[in-house]
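Supplementary Methods. Inverse-folding protocol.

Structures were first reduced to a discrete structure-token string of length 405. This string, shown here, constituted the complete conditioning input.
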């Protein structure tokens, strides 16, 4: 018993080393074994063993680098290691209200194809949801002359309270039911492992890997879409909370017994700032019977319509209050406001910034930087793909250990 525990600890340790080596190789374009050993403060022998395992699994490959010593004729070419991009194809999926965006990438994250699938219904029964994702993936693979069976993993980003480790959805605006374990349905619908994650966490992941969060240790990403999401990165890692639902900024209460939120509670920030809330407010304010779109409200406000200006201004003030609360709680290096261009300017106007500054507890230090990033739908999916690559790497390294034992 003791022996088996010791051997499983050794396997765990080897897996951790293999993953760290893989991450180090991913962080550079190409790197030598000795440079990996230096970066990870590990012995060259340990790195040689880990890279041999990764090479045999086909996850990395050797390439010839420049000669170590250009001045001598004897300078032999250095052997460098890089990811083997072609070894896996991974899909990143973002489910929005009216469409599903799919991006297919290789193991290096290079885009193979992207595809947008229209949705008739924003809310779906769980089985319809997984079937629709399969259809979208099937068509996406078709555009690249590939098939579903070529996929090594799929990561699906949806709005809501998600326990990513269990593929369990406590609640999502994309599903008609609460408390859904999507694992069995995804296994039935797809021929490869699938991972569900909160969409704001995926944007935080994408900001960290390719965007404004690069190189930052602690930052927050507020996503502005149909609802309001939050991704929290602390010490370089995504913080999810104990139940996987610790970043529900949209459901921060800003008003006692206030407006009804789509989550079923009252007084949530989202019930004042989310697109559906603005449409609801503007419809009541104008006493119109027809539902209006956010674009209608923005156009009317630009044309000087006082009611539309008032609805947007109130949303901005509520949002500013929420963001100053975030700064008071987390004291991050930076807050990134992320959304589609043209759709949330009223949430980062000078008035909103003043509200934020006035709401932050006063200290003699500059405020965290507030940056605005305009992301298209493909970027959400890109974050999903980045998370998918991470998860597939973990699975493949585990498989390696299973074969070795
Ligand atoms: Zn709510």
């Amino acid at each position: 018993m003791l022996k088996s525990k010791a051997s499983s600890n050794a396997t765990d340790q080897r897996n951790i080393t293999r993953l760290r080596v893989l991450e180090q190789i991913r962080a550079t374009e190409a790197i030598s074994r000795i440079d990996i050993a230096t970066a990870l403060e590990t012995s060259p022998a340990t790195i040689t063993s880990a890279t041999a395992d990764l090479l045999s699994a086909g996850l990395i490959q050797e390439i010839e680098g420049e000669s170590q010593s250009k001045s001598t004729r004897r300078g032999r070419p250095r052997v460098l290691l890089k990811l083997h991009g072609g070894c896996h194809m991974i899909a990143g999926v973002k489910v929005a209200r009216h469409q599903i965006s799919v991006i297919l990438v290789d193991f290096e994250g290079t885009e193979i194809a992207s595809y947008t699938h229209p949705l008739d219904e924003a809310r779906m029964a769980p089985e319809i949801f997984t079937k629709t994702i399969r259809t979208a993936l099937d068509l996406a693979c078709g555009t690249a002359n590939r098939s579903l069976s070529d996929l090594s993993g799929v990561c699906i980003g949806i709005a809501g309270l998600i326990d990513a480790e269990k593929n369990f959805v406590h609640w999502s605006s994309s599903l008609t039911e609460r408390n859904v374990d999507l694992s069995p349905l995804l296994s039935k619908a797809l021929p490869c492992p699938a991972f569900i994650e909160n969409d704001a966490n995926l944007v935080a992941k994408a900001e960290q890997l390719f965007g404004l969060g690069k190189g930052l240790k602690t930052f927050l990403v507020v996503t502005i879409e149909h609802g309001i999401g939050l991704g929290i990165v602390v010490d370089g890692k995504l913080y999810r909370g104990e139940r996987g639902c610790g970043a529900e900024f949209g459901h921060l209460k800003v008003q006692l017994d206030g407006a009804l939120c789509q989550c079923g509670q009252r007084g949530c920030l989202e019930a004042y700032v989310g697109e559906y809330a603005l449409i609801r407010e503007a419809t009541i304010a104008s006493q119109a019977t027809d539902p209006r779109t956010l674009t209608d409200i923005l156009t009317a406000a630009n044309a000087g319509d006082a009611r539309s200006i008032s609805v947007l201004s109130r949303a901005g003030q509520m949002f500013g209050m929420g963001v100053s609360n975030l700064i008071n709680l987390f004291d991050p290096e930076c807050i990134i406001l992320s959304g589609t261009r043209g759709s949330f300017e009223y949430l980062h106007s000078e008035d909103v910034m003043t509200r934020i500054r006035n709401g932050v507890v006063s200290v003699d230090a500059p405020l965290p930087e507030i940056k605005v990033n305009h992301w298209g739908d493909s970027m959400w999916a890109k974050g999903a793909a980045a998370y998918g690559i991470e998860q597939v790497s973990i699975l493949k390294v585990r498989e390696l250990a299973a074969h070795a034992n």
